[in-house]
Amino acid sequence: MVTVDKYIVGTFFASLLGSFLLYVLRQKTAAKHRKRDQFQSGQHYQIRNDPTTGEGGPHSGSDVIIVGAGVAGAALAYTLGKDGRRVRVIERDLTEPDRIVGELLQPGGYIKLIELGLEDCVEEIDAQRVLGYALFKDGKNTKLSYPLEKFHSDVSGRSFHNGRFIQRMREKAATLPNVHLEQGTVSSLLEENGIVKGVEYKTKAGQELKAYAPLTIVCDGCFSNLRRSLCKLEVEVPSCFVGLVLENCELPYANHGHVILADPSPILFYPISSTEVRCLVDVPGQKLPSLASGEMANYLKTMVAPQIPAELHDAFIAAIDKGNIRTMPNRSLPAAPCPTPGALLMGDAFNMRHPLTGGGMTVALSDIVVLRNLLKPLHDMTDADSLCRYLESFYTLRKPVASTINTLAGALYKVFCASPDQARNEMRQACFDYLSLGGSCSTGPVALLSGLNPRPLSLVLHFFAVATYGVGRLLLPFPSPKRLWIGARLISGASGIIFPIIKAEGIRQMFFPATMPAYYRAPPADEISDSAPQESK
Ligand SMILES: Cc1cc2nc3c(=O)[nH]c(=O)nc-3n(C[C@H](O)[C@H](O)[C@H](O)COP(=O)(O)OP(=O)(O)OC[C@H]3O[C@@H](n4cnc5c(N)ncnc54)[C@H](O)[C@@H]3O)c2cc1C
């Protein structure tokens, strides 16, 4: 009897405790949802205990101003905030972005996300795991898996709605008490004697304000208005992407990106949620068929639809008929900084590559890791000149990762485009067949593309292995003068593709970074301190 009583009393208290825990959990979840809703409507943000609002005067409260809270700005704000910096972020629009960019994060980028402590930002957004690519050409296809065997089981690519990912990062950054996120459009950098002291911006209410900090990091994206004085502007626009969302369809290879080597240029498909597939159709040049006149819908139906896998055809046509067709220019901008005391460029404002390989976010996140490590030992950043000299090493240290991803994107885009030139088409076919060989012929290039092994030398070796493979096939079993000639043009065409890109990246920085003096630059002595900012909890 006593045992039964004990059992009843025990059960009573256990259920009481259970109900209490359930209540606490519910309250927490409800608060989390309320906060998420506020974030999505953009109402949440406000400056907390920030003395620099308005004309606060030089460096009165922030260590760093970040312009733009997109992929780079939001991740950077969290990273520097976590390291104890007082960060002020000014973003033009804090509502959830709705864009066709930055939807596939390569596994190399996901690893950087882990290094920054931001990996939970791809959770709760219906992100999809990406395990590799499938390549389609002339009715044949081949599956190229990411070489993930040596990594933690959680590591893979992730694809998602860009806006949801960004909103999660903004939300996480704003949880830090020393990060202040506000809505405003920065109109100019405030410069005194060649040193950037801060920014001038307009608030949502139309008020014009100034903000000051020892370091201003400009992350205002691909259409940056502020980069003009901070880098050499050599933006190229080789093509545009036309974006559609396909619903209710299954990709031929689940959890894979799909690249169709179509005519005139590639078409991409990848999942962005459990029910949606993003399609990006590349259109060479800058002039697009008109959306308004229906020319675009006609182009997609007559020129593109016949080239896509049959499984996707109906959903593709339905997406065109639904009418939500978006376009974006595909820009490339080699990193060519004009080091300026008090300011730094990051993200697409600084460096862009063709988005065919989905490398932009990986480069941005990798750059943030490099910058974080450089800034970590610094206590005081007020000596703008010595900080600027020290940060020149950033441009060299970022090179192995950034230049490999950039070069591959530019070269692959050119190789994957159809061409009337027979030598170029041989190279395109050789590339498809080389990747289909499997083994290191597929894992090597995929490791480069995914950011898992971003080594410039490996890139050049694989690129010329493809060209040699193409020439070998032309010459075997019996070379003819015509085939010899095509082979020679193939090699010269391959060189003509890759060498200008490498030159723009900087041969020495790319292949021999350790020979650059900036590589060894030490932090300014009087700015290092034992009491460097502490990590925020
Ligand atoms: C069509 C296309 C598809 C792409 N797909 C991929 C992909 O699948 N994977 C991948 O890794 N990369 C992809 N990229 C590249 C990727 O989108 C970028 O590399 C990445 O978004 C760069 O982040 P960012 O923070 O520099 O710019 P953004 O994410 O664009 O953020 C810039 C932010 O600055 C704000 N801003 C701008 N001006 C001001 C101002 N004056 N004041 C205040 N705020 C301002 C903007 O509102 C915005 O929030 C793609 C690019 C294109 C063009």
UniProtKB/TrEMBL annotation:
It holds the Pfam family SE. Keywords: FAD, Flavoprotein, Membrane, Oxidoreductase, Transmembrane, Transmembrane helix. Its cofactor is FAD. Its main location: membrane. Residues 213-485 form the Squalene epoxidase domain. GO terms for molecular function: flavin adenine dinucleotide binding; squalene monooxygenase activity. The keyword Transmembrane applies. It catalyses: squalene + reduced [NADPH--hemoprotein reductase] + O2 = (S)-2,3-epoxysqualene + oxidized [NADPH--hemoprotein reductase] + H2O + H(+). It comes from the Eukaryota. One of its GO terms (cellular component) is membrane. GO terms for biological process: response to hormone; sterol biosynthetic process; terpene biosynthetic process. Its EC number is 1.14.14.17. It is found in: Membrane. Pathway: Terpene metabolism; lanosterol biosynthesis; lanosterol from farnesyl diphosphate: step 2/3. It is a multi-pass membrane protein. The chain crosses the membrane at residues 6-25. Residues 39-52 have a biased composition (Polar residues). Coiled coil: none annotated. Residues 36-59 are annotated as: Disordered. Catalyzes the stereospecific oxidation of squalene to (S)-2,3-epoxysqualene, and is considered to be a rate-limiting enzyme in steroid biosynthesis. Component of the triterpene saponins (e.g. ginsenosides or panaxosides) and phytosterols biosynthetic pathways. Catalyzes the first oxygenation step in sterol biosynthesis and is suggested to be one of the rate-limiting enzymes in this pathway. Belongs to the squalene monooxygenase family. This is Squalene monooxygenase. It comes from Escallonia herrerae.
